[in-house]
Amino acid sequence: MGYVDKNLISDEAVAYRARLHWILFVKPALIALVVIAVVGGIFYAGDLFDKLSDQTSALIWGGVLVIAASPLLTTFLGWRSAEFAVTNKRVILKTGFVQSKTAEMFLNKIESVGVDQSISGRILGFGTIVIRGTGGSLEPFHRVSSPLRFRNEIQEQIGRASETMKRTT
Q: What is the spatial distance between Cα 53 and Cα 61, in angstroms, rounded to a whole number?
């Protein structure tokens, strides 16, 4: 059970969930490949394959793999722990694993929802969502998958909430 599900209020239901985009993994994967390539180049240039024992080589390569995998692991934990949801009452955004950043805003307090997308973001389907609340609060969340759909869901829920308010008055 994630952050969103644990923090739902009474009569609140999740209408839409979004995730961070897979583009987050490109930079850590490139870093991992560069680390492995550099160490492999050093081994090859120094002809260390024949000079070191198999056990020493295995320890070195094990350490290199741990170092190369650490950016991927931290990115994975951040990706897995990020939650974005639109409910019938609020927008809930949470990022971070150890140190988290959350924003929860009632639909009636949202002034506007902006989407910033670069060319690559438009092509690959990711962008930054900026939620402006009353009082000037500004909450940007970067590299969200399908940000236009997320914005549309927020707007749709705001529309439904305002229709419900009109019916009750």
A: 12
Q: Note down the domain range covering 62.
A: 25-77
Query: Of 153, 106, 151, whose CA–CA distance to 127 is shortest?
Result: 151
Both 93 and 158 in a single domain? yes
Cα-based distances in Å from 2 to 30, 40, 154:
30, 41, 20
Beta carbons of 86 and 15 less than 8 angstroms apart? yes
Helix (H) or strand (E) holding 72: helix 54-81
How far apart, in whole angstroms, are the C-alpha atoms of residue 36 and residue 161? 53
- Name 63's Cβ contacts closer than 8 Å, sequence gap at least 6: none
pLDDT in tens, 8-65: 999 999 999 999 999 999 999 999 999 999 988 887 877 766 777 778 878 888 999 9
Q: What is the pLDDT of residues 65-90, one digit of tens each?
A: 999 999 999 999 999 999 999 999 99
CATH of the domain at 136: 2.30.29
* Dist. CA 123–CA 156, nearest whole Å: 24
